[in-house]
């Protein structure tokens, strides 16, 4: 497997993967990434200072998923958000999520002091994965959250 930063020609493939994953978990509704304006042009969204998005490709070059880091809240807070971390079913449980997360957190430590994320409680494996990798469950979202339908929030010091 190969992890690399997103390229402009990856936009439609990663959007399709994210939408499929959201459908799988009932996330194709308002208040979630499903309605994010940036979803169809992730390369442009993440091609800015303090932001990055990585995609995972298998040995044959098939895209399997990805994840991103972007600032959350005001710059003074130095908090980033782990965003749009989705993998196709065939990539789950292979260890690639751990490698993808480590790649994102290495980048995040260069720019931020903490990493926040929002997800759904029904994504049981994802919630377990985040806890295993040092994220603490919060009782409520951080101020400024746009994904009002999320019901699980985590933070990790970097």
Query: Overall mean pLDDT score?
Result: 93
Strand order of the largest sheet: 1-2-3-4-5-7-6
- H/E series, N to C? EHHEEEHEHEE
Helix content: 25-40%
Shape: globular
Count helical runs: 4
Structural class by SSE content: alpha+beta
Integer-rounded radius of gyration:
14 Å
Number of strands: 7
User: Low-confidence segments, ≥5 residues, pLDDT <50?
Assistant: none
Main sheet record: 7 strands, mixed
Strand content: 25-35%
What gap, in angstroms, lies between the N and C termini? 26 Å
Give a quick rundown of the structure.
The chain is an alpha+beta fold and 158 residues long.
Set out the fold topology:
Blueprint: E1 2-5, H1 11-24, H2 42-46, E2 52-57, E3 63-72, E4 79-87, H3 96-109, E5 114-119, H4 124-132, E6 136-138, E7 152-157
Parallel strand pairs: 4-5
Antiparallel strand pairs: 1-2, 2-3, 3-4, 5-7, 6-7
Describe this structure in words.
The chain has 158 residues and is an alpha+beta fold. It contains 4 helices and 7 strands. Strand 2 and strand 3 (63-72) form a beta hairpin. The protein is globular.
Main features:
single chain, 158 residues, alpha+beta
């Amino acid at each position: 497997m190969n992890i690399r930063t997103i390229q402009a020609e990856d936009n439609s493939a990663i959007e399709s993967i994210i939408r499929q994953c959201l459908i799988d978990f009932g996330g194709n509704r308002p208040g979630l990434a499903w309605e994010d304006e940036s979803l169809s042009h992730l390369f442009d969204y993440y091609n800015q200072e303090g932001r990055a998005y990585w995609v995972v490709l298998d040995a044959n070059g098939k895209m399997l998923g990805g994840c991103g880091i972007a600032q959350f809240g005001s710059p003074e807070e130095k908090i980033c958000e782990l965003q749009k971390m989705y993998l196709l079913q065939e990539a789950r449980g292979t260890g690639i999520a751990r490698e993808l997360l480590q790649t994102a957190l290495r980048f995040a430590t260069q720019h931020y002091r903490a990493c926040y994320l929002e997800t759904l409680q029904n994504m049981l494996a994802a919630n377990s994965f985040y806890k295993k990798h040092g994220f603490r469950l919060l009782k409520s979202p951080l101020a400024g959250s746009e994904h009002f339908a999320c019901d699980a929030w985590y933070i990790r010091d970097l």
